[in-house]
Design brief:
Layout lengths: L1 E8 L8 E4 L14 E5 L2 E4 L1 E5 L6 H15 L22 E9 L2 E11 L8 E12 L19 E2 L14 H7 L6 E3 L17 H7 L3 E9 L2 E8 L6 E3 L11 H19 L2 E4 L8 H12 L9 E6 L14 E6 L3 E5 L11 H6 L10 H14 L2
Parallel strand pairs: 5-15, 5-16, 10-14, 14-15
Antiparallel strand pairs: 1-2, 1-6, 3-4, 6-7, 7-8, 8-9, 11-12, 12-13, 16-17
């Protein structure tokens, strides 16, 4: 299954109907093809999607919405802890409508889901009120602009909330996934944004350890029944260090090394499965070069052979210069509501760096508010004597 587009409407925090595309909207050159995944015909997938914006612009909320959609496609209950967090802002009368386009087994699919608050429940819970799934053969799409046009197609599957076997908080994708033996692999690493910890039990490759911390000879897990040992050895020390839990690693390894071990090991699995990796504030604990290296791996089709996608949020405008294209970058703003704007719709110039355009506020709304800056500056002058 390949995610093509997400359209979100009715969400209280979003300014309007907001869209994220996972496919190329710009022309794909011969050089671009080495960094992208061909899906069918002239449709190419961007293997890296960047969400960039100033502090409190809504990047995390947008990333959480992508994660929610992935859970929906996987037929997970929308009331599960963590999954439902994105819905917590909704009032009783709100209706969240998600239109999700995905490609699978030669067909383009259009899943439309309407979600609301369960008013009959004493506890706060959410239900799927309506849902339809339409499909069409990719062979019928002759032009890119017709890719998401389903006006001539009737609903192939409609939700029936009277069916006893279908829970009111699980998508009809549960039947689709079973019938088509379909799944979408993904990993959301948002949990380690503020709580940096090792998330993977493994024998870590020596080459990865050398990349992150050349002083480490080896790091590996050993389990005997319920007992778990973490064995760490530095080149200049004769004895290995044996730890009983991941928290103790913070005494010996830098936060960047710990995050790097988690991110890169998860990325290896994502590369194997052709899934989606979500990372919030990717630069946290990382130096710029380690972030750029991960981006380059996802853009390298000799490594990323199965079309895995990296979706990340960042405050670093310099990372924009890693991209030759504009259509894989989204500017997130929060001005009377969160808006999502594809960089390709605004930025067409190639004679200046994207990072310079971003930092100079050429793109509007990408620099801190000047009036707020001056107000705070005056406050500091009056506060400090």
């Amino acid at each position: 299954m390949r995610l093509l587009r997400i359209v979100c409407s009715g969400y209280p925090l979003f300014k309007e109907n907001e869209t994220i595309d996972f496919i190329a909207s710009q022309r794909v050159t011969d050089e671009d093809r080495d960094q992208m995944t061909s899906l069918f015909s002239n449709i190419y997938q961007n293997n890296v999607i960047a969400l960039i914006g100033i502090n409190a612009s809504g990047k995390t909320i947008v990333l959480n919405m992508v994660s929610f959609v992935l859970n929906l496609l996987s037929a997970n209950q929308i009331n599960n802890a963590g999954v439902r967090d994105v819905l917590a802002i909704m009032n009783d009368e709100d209706r969240l409508i998600l239109e999700v386009f995905f490609y699978d087994d030669g067909n383009i699919n259009d899943l439309t889901v309407e979600i609301g608050v369960d008013k009959s429940s004493k506890e706060r819970r959410y239900v799927i009120l309506d849902e339809t799934l339409k499909s069409k053969s990719s062979k019928k799409v002759k032009y890119k602009k017709a890719l998401f046009d389903f006006t001539k197609y009737d609903s192939e599957v409609s939700r029936d909330n009277n069916e006893a076997y279908l829970r009111d908080d699980i998508s009809i994708m549960i039947a689709y996934n079973k019938e088509h033996s379909c799944r979408i692999d993904y990993k959301d690493l948002s949990d380690i944004t503020d709580d940096n910890r090792l998330e993977v039990e493994a024998v870590f490759p020596a080459s990865l350890l050398k990349l992150l911390d050349p002083s480490v000879e080896y790091l590996r897990y050993e389990r005997k029944g319920l007992k778990k040992d973490i064995r760490l050895k530095f080149y200049r020390q004769k004895e290995e260090i044996i730890l009983s839990n991941e928290r103790e690693l913070n005494l010996y390894l830098s936060s960047g090394t710990i995050k790097g071990l988690t991110v890169y090991m998860v990325a290896i699995d994502i590369f194997k499965n052709g899934g989606i990796l979500l990372i919030d504030e990717m630069e946290n604990h990382f130096n710029r070069e380690l972030v750029a290296t991960l981006i380059r791996f996802f853009q390298n089709t000799k490594i990323n052979k199965n079309g895995a996608i990296l979706v990340f949020s960042t405050h670093y405008p310099s990372l924009l210069d890693e991209f030759d294209r504009n259509d894989n970058t989204y500017i997130i703003r929060n001005e009377d509501g969160i808006s999502i704007e594809n960089l390709a719709s605004r930025f067409t110039r190639n004679d200046i760096k994207k990072s310079v355009a971003y930092e100079s506020n050429y793109l509007k709304g990408t620099a801190p508010n000047y009036e707020a800056y001056m107000d705070f500056k005056r406050f500091l002058r009056g506060e400090i004597h």
